[in-house]
Amino acid sequence: MILHTIGVLGMGVMGSNLALNMADHGYDVAVYNHTPQTTRQFVRMNPHEHITAYYDLATYIQSLERPRKVMFMIKAGEPVDTMIDKILPYLEAGDILIDGGNSYFKDTQRRVKHCQEQGIHFIGMGISGGEKGARRGPAIMIGGAKEAYEEIHAIYNDIAAKAPDGKPCCAYMGPDGAGHFVKMVHNGIEYADMQLIAEAYLLLKYVGAYDNRNLGNIFHQWNQGELHSYLIGISADIFAETDENHKFVLDYIVDKAEQKGTGRWTCLEGIEEGVDISLIMAACNARVLSQAVEREKAKQIYPSGDITVQHTDAFIEAVRRSLYAAKIVAYAQGFSLYKQASQVYHWQLPYQRIAEIFRAGCIIQADFLSTISQAYEGDSQLDNLLFYPFFIDHLKAGEAALRHVVAIGIASGIPMPAFTNAITYIDAYRSPCMGANLIQGLRDYFGAHTFQRIDQEGAVHHLWQEHYKK
Predict the structure, then answer these.
(1) Which one from 69, 167, 183, 327 is the annotated catalytic residue?
(2) Residues flagged as binding site for NADP(+)
(3) Does any domain span residue 155?
(4) For residue 340, what are the domain limits?
(5) How many domains does the chain have?
């Protein structure tokens, strides 16, 4: 009997494509799904000399070479815990379970401890790139015991996307939940990136008065320059796409954006760790508000005002500069959260490698990431990407445009939560006074919470006088 290199458990879209990717690289892959019909359909549609299907869990596990490596590609949450309990009795000390789904990193931390008690390694693996990435090369973020990583890294290096310099977009992030945390924040940045693109679209459509065909051309041109990225490229495609009736598909998509939870988790972690990721939060909130059933009612009560059209090349350039500047802020916030979490959870996250593995395969892949990698290569403990000379120059160059288009957007009644948060973050970060002194005064007045003085050490409480009595 052939002993298979690895088993993939879960024959959905991602699991199926990862199994085929591994098989294409010469690995003998055992596949299994809790519903046999799904497995039968997969092997019927995708016959491959390096893939063998199994329909009995015990036989499936026995078919794997030791240490056994089983990759879960199933729905996050309770199904993962259920499958762990089902599979543990068939494993032996040193075997490795790999969760490749979008699991919450704290669940992964808990599962690592649970499996350790049984002598089993548990890997939390972030995978980005969607269906195409899984099939042709995703970005892979691995978290768990280092010795388990050493057993599996060759497989995942082989199937990962390759950056322009040939490096595999796969790396070890750190122990327990580090891999899933990095993927979670990646998704938060992805939310921000998409929201910024959506706001640029609204500005160009309503203030610039550009139609879909023009927008496709504009985004295609942008994708030839410093904004070159996967999301800008596919945005250009979406603008240009027509259906069988020659109607632009975009105009017939319901204006409601959904989410699966990773962006929300990122926001909660930002609050928990005290890191300002307001632009990411704004993007998450924008999706929430897009679902509000009362929007049509609000539209009737609060009609939009007139818009002064600016159908000029100068306006297009202002939006482009604004988008680039705001994008810098989004990534700066995401990497600030990486830094804080790395300290809190003792992960020692490799910031340079994180940026490097995002350069290909994943949804946020962009030329921009090579510069982020260079920033951390020069200073692995950089306080904030906004302090790196390249980004300092580009933020200064784009700030006036960002401020200008935000003002135009607000005056025109165009929702711009992400662009607005970008300029607010910059203003607050550099402000000599944010009004926090008054807030502390208020807290001390009504709750004796104390405050610090600029002319002495330590916390003090002031006996406030009621100057304006009724």
Answers:
(1) 183
(2) 10-15, 33-35, 74-76, 102
(3) yes
(4) 184-430
(5) 3
